[in-house]
Amino acid sequence: MGAQDTDLEAAAAAARAALVREIAESGVWDADPAWRDVFEQVPRHVFVPYYYLPKATGYQRLWREDPDPRRRARWLRGAYADEPLATRVRDGELVSSSSQPSLMARMLVELDVREGDRVLEIGAGTGYNAALLARRAGEQNVTTVDLDPEITESARRHLAAAGCRPAVVTGDGALGCPEHAPYDRIIATCALRAVPTAWPAQCRPGARVLAPLATGLILLTVRDAGHAEGRFLHTPAYFVPLRGTTRGEEPVQHIGGLPRRALADDSFRFLLALTAGRLDPHEALALWEREGRPERERFGVTVSGEHEWAWLDDPEGPYAWPLPSPADPAGPA
Hints:
two-stranded antiparallel ribbon; alpha/beta; single chain; globular; 11 helices; 14 strands
């Protein structure tokens, strides 16, 4: 290892320690301190040898091998900032990213992974999240899936560079990965419009499924192959959509006739996203106001066979909305 590499590793270790301290101060690991050790062990910079920063005219690329030492230092600082990083851009569109580390930490704690659990990750990204999971559950128990072969190949390289080799599979994440089932945990790192029915079917009873849905995080408990149910976490979450498409939802700022105070409220924007195409926005506003401006954790999702619906307070109550079928072209993309 050359002097430059030695200096890089020393700087990376210091930056990683600072990031871990910052996340720890939020209290996210209080319920499961073992995750702090995992984040201390896994070097994020290995998984983001380059990334993109948005500019007025597009994106600026920062990378590890930049000949300018100041830009290399800026790259390393960004790699250990508690921020999401754009890692793959095509034709000006973001198609893959490395999630905000503190959000990843919160999701992993909620997933309640234990050593020996068999885990499926939907959305390989850089491979960083798969490495964290592999440190906790054992690399032989972790599978990460992505539709894009370029993404899976780069994730595989990053994981190997970090000395970690979970299964990396190129395939449609909406179909899960039946060859490595059954799973104790499934986690998605891409936004959905509905939970694919293939996921509970590939889980053991009692398994947990955690996925971004409608700007929130839904945490389901699997009862059996055809049934799962759970509530949203309080945490907001914004991810690149499954398969990198953004179709199907109208931006809330373009919905006319709604008061600005409501459109500025995160809980109302969540309700609009959850009921998009199923509830008129003005009806959603009336519901939101009538029910005391409910936060995310009052909402939930039930999967029962081929049927799936979101609900407020009670899955059998008066406020429920069907979610798109996985076979619906407006569903998960």
